[in-house]
Write a structure and sequence with these properties.
130 residues, mainly alpha
């Protein structure tokens, strides 16, 4: 039987992968048919809608992630980086891009992975914020 934590982690990974495909401009047909409902997904993952989550400071969001199991932090940070990067690009919102940069940096630290696409996005965001 799947636990709530396992279900949430699965949701996080699926959302992160879907966002990655949107960022790379390669959405799957099923994703195109079923528009992502960020508020619903955020409620399932964080018990907050996207508007409420995005209005929180980076520190407050990091605190929410820190309440989760440490082994899952990298998944949360990757998903948050993808989410705020995608929303920041589509809405031309520098606050979202700044949050994306922070969460991507935390993802790289917590995962220990050398992820060139993420590093390139961080550089792109830094330039956009200058």
């Amino acid at each position: 039987m799947i636990t709530d934590k396992e279900f949430t982690l699965r949701l996080i990974r699926q959302l992160s992968q879907a966002l990655e495909k949107l960022i790379l401009d390669k959405p799957e047909e099923s994703l195109m048919q079923k528009e992502l409902d960020f508020d619903s997904l955020m409620r399932d993952i964080f018990k907050l809608d996207f508007t409420t989550l995005s209005s929180k400071s980076k520190e407050e969001i990091i605190e929410i992630v820190n309440e989760r199991q440490e082994r899952d932090h990298k998944d949360y940070y990757e998903m948050l980086g993808n989410l705020f990067y995608f929303k920041g690009k589509t809405e031309a919102n520098n606050d979202f891009l700044d949050k994306a940069k922070t969460f991507y940096e935390l993802y790289l630290q917590s995962s220990g992975i050398f992820a060139l696409p993420i590093i390139n996005r961080i550089s792109e965001v830094k330039k956009a914020l200058e």
